[in-house]
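User: Fold this; tokens only.

Assistant: Input:
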Amino acid sequence: MDEEILVKEREDGIGIITLNRPQKKNALNISMRRKISEYLNRWKNSDHIGVVIITGAGNAFSSGFDLSEFQDPSIFNEIYESSAKYHRDVWHFPKPIIAGINGLAFGGGFDLAALCDLRVSSKDAAFSHPEVKFGAPPIYTPLRWIVGEGIAKDLCFTGRKMDAEKAYDIGFVNYLVEKEQVLGKSVEVAKRILESPRDTLRFTKSFMIKQTEESFEKAFSIEHDQAFKEVLFKHLKK
């Protein structure tokens, strides 16, 4: 349903995607992942949209994947395929993406924040990988590149919660603001980015992606693709 994703194309060249299931803490389901992929693929060659902001409605950025879908084995393949495509579409998007983290970012929400280029967070946000407790291996590599191996291993193995102040201190969060300022600050940062020529931004982002592309694909094919097929689905079938 389109209502699960709110999309705005601003006149100043900023595209905003709002995860809009506040009653479910913006849990990502198949249709939402497909819509995110659809808009990112539409915008990647757009002459108008130069920066994208992804944020959440209500009091959460995203609690992760919608676990209710995992109760239906008949859609496991759709879950896997939509997830594999969506993660790669975010990572390989050729323009800057800002995560406007307006609340908790757990599981797949934590992953989404890590896949973005910059992170603006509310002071009451929190980050965690609780999915490891029910058999879903966290995506480790993008997080490791941001915060280092020691902290990334700790967060991925323990599933412990990290508050926004700690996330800022270790460099995961770039800007820390009050909750009501998250979107405004994200737009401010986006406007600052757009002061540079679009081709310069695109070249810079492409260079960043190329530096990690092979490593990302090798790691993601194990941490996501193989993990889904060999570990996660096995635990769900028990």
